[in-house]
């Protein structure tokens, strides 16, 4: 994944490049029906999460740090919006001998027998969402089932967030049609009942859409250059409903919430708290 260690500073420096970028690439998202999306976002308008730091840095469900003891490695899934700092967290824990990290298989999405599916998705979401999400489900299943000899397996996202955040959002915003959504849902339900998708803990990097946008611009991944802020807001609400408010969809594991609004260079403190909470110091 790309380096996210740079931060843009100052609202005036941020908004002008974003505005120019979106104007020059407006045609890539004409099929998103942004008028409808903007109307919905405006009706749900809320200020950025400036008070997010008032939430406890680490929130644990049922105060549990371990599931039943088995011979399997503990599996920890890192969830969060695009640009929330997941790859930075993985780089930190990749230094631990007892932890094997599994980044999102982005490179596979960028080269499916010579076709960049990720780029096609962002160029024309209504046309390519079904094909892209079908391949995402396939590659994420491979990650879930990838073996490791280490005591902890740490994954970037999961099949659950693919379904509960990304596929659900595409369907709600009509970029996936109902028959396509039904097919993806059937596959997901079947995978849950027939494959080992065991998760011990979910770590939610809770940031704001505005902060995520800054990081996306800083890392300059080609395919992401035209992502509208409205799309990040949509995904933020999906993650909040599932992992923070816990009002939609079941949780496959206890959730720990980290404050990811801080600059990435200052996130080490949050990672240290996570180490202590999950007893990852001396693996």
Automatic annotation (TrEMBL):
GO terms for cellular component: mitochondrion. It comes from the Eukaryota. GO terms for molecular function: deoxynucleoside kinase activity. Gene3D superfamilies: P-loop containing nucleotide triphosphate hydrolases. InterPro entries: Deoxyribonucleoside_kinase, DNK_dom, P-loop_NTPase. It holds the Pfam family dNK. Residues 76-269 form the Deoxynucleoside kinase domain. SUPFAM superfamilies: P-loop containing nucleoside triphosphate hydrolases. This is Deoxynucleoside kinase-like. The gene is LOC110981354.
């Amino acid at each position: 994944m790309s380096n996210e260690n740079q931060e843009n500073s100052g609202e005036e420096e941020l908004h002008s490049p974003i505005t120019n970028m979106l104007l020059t690439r407006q045609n890539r998202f004409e099929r998103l029906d942004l008028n409808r999306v903007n109307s919905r976002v405006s009706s749900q308008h809320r200020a950025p999460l400036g008070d997010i730091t008032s939430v406890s840095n680490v929130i644990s469900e049922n105060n549990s740090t371990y599931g039943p003891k088995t011979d399997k490695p503990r599996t920890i899934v890192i969830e969060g919006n695009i640009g929330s700092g997941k790859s930075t967290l993985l780089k930190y824990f990749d230094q631990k001998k007892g932890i094997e990290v599994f980044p999102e298989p982005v490179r596979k999405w960028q080269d499916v027998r010579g076709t960049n599916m990720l780029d096609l998705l962002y160029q024309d979401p209504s046309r390519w969402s079904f094909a892209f999400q079908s391949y995402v489900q396939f590659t994420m299943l491979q990650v879930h089932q990838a073996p490791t000899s280490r005591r902890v397996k740490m994954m970037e996202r999961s099949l659950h967030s693919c379904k509960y955040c990304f596929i659900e959002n595409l369907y709600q915003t009509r970029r996936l049609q109902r028959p396509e959504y039904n097919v993806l849902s059937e596959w997901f339900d079947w995978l849950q009942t027939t494959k080992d998708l065991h998760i011990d803990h979910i770590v939610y990097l809770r940031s704001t859409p505005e902060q995520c946008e800054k990081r996306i611009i800083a890392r300059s991944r080609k395919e992401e250059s035209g992502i509208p802020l409205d799309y990040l807001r949509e995904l933020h609400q999906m993650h909040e409903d599932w992992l923070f408010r816990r009002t939609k969809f079941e949780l496959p594991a206890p959730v720990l919430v980290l404050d990811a609004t801080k600059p990435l260079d200052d996130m080490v403190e949050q990672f240290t708290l996570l180490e202590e909470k999950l007893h990852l110091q001396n693996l």
